[in-house]
């Protein structure tokens, strides 16, 4: 059909009524957003002559996406979560902020309330005999001074690229810990070197990516929430250098400043000092937080997250 089809009076009226423009109740901003969205959908249908079969296939896709709890995964894969980061980056640039550790996406696999310990934690339960990882670093304020008592909330995948809680074969909170920094602002963890993540091959996200000719893989990475009193909350990740997907992340999270070089440690004295069984991989990463302008900036954004009991 034609562009002018959507200009017909009866269609204009239909979208106005369906968006609630003809009543005085509801939320005015939400009405405008819905009206815009419905108009765009109608334009797409007309422009690409989308058939009823295709339309109902798309509706069913939404059912499957919800059933499989993959909507947040798809948002990451379509680059929308990264887009939100780019908007926040731009806002900071306009505020004249620079020099802090860059943010990058949270992703859909955080679980709240991981065990807390002071200065150090062992994160793995010993069931995965992956390479031992010594992960450590320092948290600093924008003035470069170490921040004692900062909370470093860490989560990462196992050697199969799977995350505890979502992967029921792992123990509760495996590879998830909150570590508070010591008097020098330092944190340290014993864990295992994670592998990259791949979207469930039989899921709706991978099905959509396949139709775009894209893969659904992420490079090996470690997630962090870093927070300290009076400082701006930081949501970020580090990537382990050398991964084949380092610059081909399906979720677009890699940033130059967030690449850590894994170092092979074979010195028995250093292993002993760290109370590790022997040779291991060291990953060091320091964080610099901005001062918070208000209380809201000190907290991570609100979004639905998994809660384990
Ligand atoms: C992940 O581990 C992840 O971090 C993101 C963003 C998406 C899927 C899996
Ligand atoms: Fe992840």
Automatic annotation (TrEMBL):
Keywords: Aromatic hydrocarbons catabolism, Dioxygenase, Iron, Metal-binding, Oxidoreductase. PROSITE patterns: INTRADIOL_DIOXYGENAS. GO terms for biological process: catechol-containing compound catabolic process. Pathway: Aromatic compound metabolism; beta-ketoadipate pathway; 5-oxo-4,5-dihydro-2-furylacetate from catechol: step 1/3. It catalyses: catechol + O2 = cis,cis-muconate + 2 H(+). Residues 135-163 form the Intradiol ring-cleavage dioxygenases domain. Its EC number is 1.13.11.1. The keyword Transmembrane helix does not apply. InterPro entries: Catechol_dOase_N (IPR007535), Cchol_dOase_prob (IPR012801), Intradiol_dOase_C (IPR000627), Intradiol_dOase_core (IPR015889), Intradiol_RC_Dioxygenase (IPR050770). Its cofactor is Fe(3+). GO terms for molecular function: catechol 1,2-dioxygenase activity; ferric iron binding. Pfam families: Dioxygenase_C, Dioxygenase_N. Belongs to the intradiol ring-cleavage dioxygenase family. PANTHER family: DIOXYGENASE, PUTATIVE (AFU_ORTHOLOGUE AFUA_2G02910)-RELATED, INTRADIOL RING-CLEAVAGE DIOXYGENASES DOMAIN-CONTAINING PROTEIN-RELATED. This is catechol 1,2-dioxygenase. The gene is catA.
